[in-house]
Design goal:
180 residues; mainly alpha; 2 domains; 7 helices; 79% helix
């Protein structure tokens, strides 16, 4: 019963944060809402009995990729904004969502024993990595998806930086700097 309550809370936070990504007027707040959505998805992965996917979700998506996305947003947005607004309507959802997520994590840490079975962890990671990165002829070929995704992310980041550089060097931006 408690897992169902956790699932409902995390699902509401995930859907609310995803809606905030669409409704946010400032791209930086949209990126932060996406981070909240990804962290709550990691909680759902933990609930369904896949802690490895939950940890990967936090480390890879909420950590590394969203840091790059936030960096690109800040680079692209640096030419337009002189300051970021303190609060908007999205903040009315995101701030309580972060507080609820922190409360759920705290409650789960207090209630669960912190003993680890190292053989279980080693076995599940080994099986997962063997399946994902099997480069044999008869393997599933999932490693190609990782390579393609890496190239896609790299090319989109380079394109965003080139667009920002082009925008920063344009005549309009020089005129805006003269007015400030």
């Amino acid at each position: 019963m408690l897992a169902l309550i956790y699932f409902i809370i995390l699902a509401v936070i995930t859907l609310g944060a995803a809606a905030c990504v669409l409704l946010s007027r400032h791209p930086l707040y949209g990126g932060l809402s996406l981070i909240v959505s990804m962290v709550s998805l990691a909680g759902i992965y933990g609930l369904i009995g896949s802690p490895f996917l939950g940890v990967v979700q936090v480390m890879v998506y909420a950590g590394a990729i969203m840091m790059l996305v936030t960096f690109v947003i800040m680079v692209l947005n640096g030419a337009r904004d002189s300051k970021t607004p303190m609060f908007d309507k999205v903040s009315l959802f995101i701030i309580p969502a972060v507080i609820v997520l922190a409360g759920l994590v705290g409650f789960a840490l207090v209630r669960s024993p912190l003993a680890f079975d190292t053989t279980t962890l080693r076995g599940s990671v080994a099986i997962t990595s063997k399946t994902l990165f099997d480069v044999a002829q008869t393997g599933p070929g999932y490693f190609v998806l990782f390579e393609a995704l890496g190239l896609l992310l790299l090319s989109s980041m380079v394109a965003a930086v080139l667009l920002a550089k082009k925008r920063l060097g344009s005549v309009e931006s020089e005129n805006m700097e003269d007015k400030h």
